[in-house]
Amino acid sequence: MDFLDIRLDMIWNYKELFIRGLWVTLGLTAVGYISGVILGLFIGMGKLSSKKWIYLPCKYYVDFFRGTPLLVQILLIHLALIPSIFGHSLGYFVSGALALTLNCAAYNAEIIRAGIQSIEKGQMEAARSLGMPRSVAMKHIILPQAFRRMVPPLGNELIALLKDSSLVTVIAANDLLYAGKVVAGAYARFWEPYITVAILYLLLTFVITKIIAYVEKRFSNSYIPKQRRRVFSFGRSAVEVNK
Question: Which NCBIfam families does the entry link to (predicted)?
Fold first, then answer.
């Protein structure tokens, strides 16, 4: 195919399929990431536990999901785990979201564990010396400080999960990559559909990167919020007050 012989009409004819795929991709990413952060928080805390019956399951969980390919995990959950529990498949979205959640939680657990351990031990000791229970000190003293350091790696995990969500196309999920495959099969042309998919993923990644940069700046130690200014007039003079 001539590089200059681009057919945009084939993309336009399937625009609804691409729009549907875009929403499916965003839905899978959102569910997988939010659930993965929540589950990862508990697993990360579990890896810090001194009790082996808590620590070992969390450790084995992280080792398994970080040590095996996400594609294999998706197939295991969709073709083996869910049918064995419910007797039938629950659809691509449930299988895909569950696989992304479990995989994301393993990586987030390590991020959270490392973030908590990066806080000086004296912070916890000082809180305990003031009579704070360990759980209260962790919630109000340690986690807020650790979260500032977790923002960049957690943001990178979100971007990685967005791109990894394309793997759910192997279980016939109607995501962006599936839309590209349909168009490529319908026209026997591959440049237009796949470059369209690549551009859409690039745009999504760009937007998320900007959001992460804002959040990282917002929670940085050097962040100074903009002050609202109120002006009070006294005759010909005015007084400007920061608020």
Answer: HEQRo_perm_3TM
Buried b / exposed e along 52-68 (16+ C-beta atoms within 10 A) = eebeeebeebbeebeee
Quote the strand ranges of the chain, DSSP E.
229-234, 237-242
> Per-domain residue ranges for the chain?
9-242
Partners of 230 in the β-ladder: 241
How is residue 26 written in tokens? 């965003």
Q: What is the pLDDT of residues 62-91, one digit of tens each?
A: 999 999 999 999 999 999 999 999 988 899
Task: Quote the DSSP letter at residue 89.
Answer: -
Q: Are the beta carbons of 194 and 21 closer than 8 angstroms?
A: no
What is the 8-class DSSP label of residue 138? Answer: I
pLDDT per residue as tens digits for the range 145-177 = 888 888 889 999 999 999 999 999 999 888 889
Q: Tell me the β-bridge partners of 233.
A: 238
CB 238 within 8 A of CB 232: yes
Contact 109, 44 (CB under 8 A): yes
Structure tokens of 41? 């928080």
CA distance 82 to 76: 9
The CATH fold of domain 9-242: MetI-like fold (1.10.3720)
